[in-house]
From TrEMBL:
<dbReference type="GO" id="GO:0045944">
    <property type="term" value="P:positive regulation of transcription by RNA polymerase II"/>
</dbReference>
<feature type="repeat" description="ANK">
    <location>
        <begin position="119"/>
        <end position="155"/>
    </location>
</feature>
<feature type="compositionally biased region" description="Polar residues">
    <location>
        <begin position="354"/>
        <end position="369"/>
    </location>
</feature>
<dbReference type="InterPro" id="IPR036770">
    <property type="entry name" value="Ankyrin_rpt-contain_sf"/>
</dbReference>
<dbReference type="GO" id="GO:0003713">
    <property type="term" value="F:transcription coactivator activity"/>
</dbReference>
<keyword id="KW-0677">Repeat</keyword>
<feature type="region of interest" description="Disordered">
    <location>
        <begin position="1"/>
        <end position="64"/>
    </location>
</feature>
<keyword id="KW-0805">Transcription regulation</keyword>
<dbReference type="GO" id="GO:0045727">
    <property type="term" value="P:positive regulation of translation"/>
</dbReference>
<dbReference type="GO" id="GO:0002315">
    <property type="term" value="P:marginal zone B cell differentiation"/>
</dbReference>
<dbReference type="GO" id="GO:0045064">
    <property type="term" value="P:T-helper 2 cell differentiation"/>
</dbReference>
<dbReference type="Pfam" id="PF00023">
    <property type="entry name" value="Ank"/>
</dbReference>
<dbReference type="GO" id="GO:0048471">
    <property type="term" value="C:perinuclear region of cytoplasm"/>
</dbReference>
<dbReference type="GO" id="GO:0019730">
    <property type="term" value="P:antimicrobial humoral response"/>
</dbReference>
<keyword id="KW-0597">Phosphoprotein</keyword>
<dbReference type="GO" id="GO:0042771">
    <property type="term" value="P:intrinsic apoptotic signaling pathway in response to DNA damage by p53 class mediator"/>
</dbReference>
<dbReference type="GO" id="GO:0030330">
    <property type="term" value="P:DNA damage response, signal transduction by p53 class mediator"/>
</dbReference>
Amino acid sequence: MPRCPRDMDEGPVDLRTRPKAGAPDSEATLPLRKRRYREPQESPGPGIVPAPEPSPQSPSTYPGLPGPATAIYYPGPFLYPAPAPFSVLSLPPPTYPVLCPLENPLTADIAKATRPDEDGDTPLHIAVAQGNLLAVHRLVHLFQQGGRDLDVYNNLRQTPLHLAVITTLPSVVRLLVSKGANPMALDRNGQTAAHLACEHRSSSCLRALLETSAPGVLSLEARNYEGLTPLHVAVNTEDRETVLLLLDRGADIDAVDIKSGRSPLIHAVENNSLAMVQLLLQHGANVNAQMYSGSSALHSASGRGLLPLVRTLVRSGADSSLKNCHNDTPLMVARNRRVIDILRGKASRPSPQPTLGPTEPSQEGSTPISPEGSSQFGSSGPPSASPASSSPPRSPPEDPPTSLQGPQIFFLPTQSPTAFLPYTGPLRAPGRPVPPSPAPGGS
């Protein structure tokens, strides 16, 4: 008898958590207790008395907590509806609710509200992750009734406040902080709720933390396990609104991370973020701040060849002669010629001039020399000025020599064509060798 394939032999399967084939719901892979609450559609079976509808004055039943569906929670004593015999016997229920013993139901509800699952998540974690504000209110009330701490950690070392910041729920953040949640609780990376708000670019959650926390409780200089403050994290994420909010609340703009000593300005330079560099410089950041190795922001920008950042730092007063631990200045670590020019005080390096052709005029504005030009050579001697010059000279003429001694050598410019001159002396022109002179006393 053929055996089943290996992938089909799954053993016992829990049909409650197994995803259905072709189910479009993305929550099908989650356990039933972690899915979003949906109102039941089926009608109650025979013999089951449905719970009475809550009055408009009292809030509705909390849907996320396991337990009897007939319980009605409200701030105050826990009152349950009338017992079933009134409905079974078709008798009108009493006008007042029947007061049940308060100790046992409240203890059971608190135990169910604070019991973690296999992932360490309590019903409060799940309600916050789902964004169910009403359930969060009820669960927070149960935590307070039982004297439990709201900063309960799951297996990922996340508190409900951490989840509220990650899911960007400022109203839940305000509720949890106002009810006693600690904003300085650390997650597995050593980050506080302020770090997480800056990491997820949530200025609304950061504002809720700053406005709701008691004075002196939330520290903006706390470091995570990477040694970064919330301002470092906000600069690395390039969130302008979060950076401005931190600076307005008194965050240290020159705070250094405890691993390398980099300031937020140096982090912005290494991220090649010109907008963050300009924002920090406008708010008074120290442009010559040095890290533990002695390098400044100008060292980092010069070594990376970041021309706009180098220009911005130099204009803001960065010291180009500052030395690091290796006695290197920003000029010594620069590899880009344009960066070197900026550090030396030059605006830009002039581009090389193209070589002029034989018929193009030179940059000095002089015209090419030709045999028919402004000066002509005589048939047997030195040149003589021609009265019929084609164009007047652009510069004042020099005084002619009074006497000529020895053979004269004329150097023609490379722009003019080669001229053949009737001159007895040696001729030196481009492209023609110089004939050897006869030995003295020879023929």
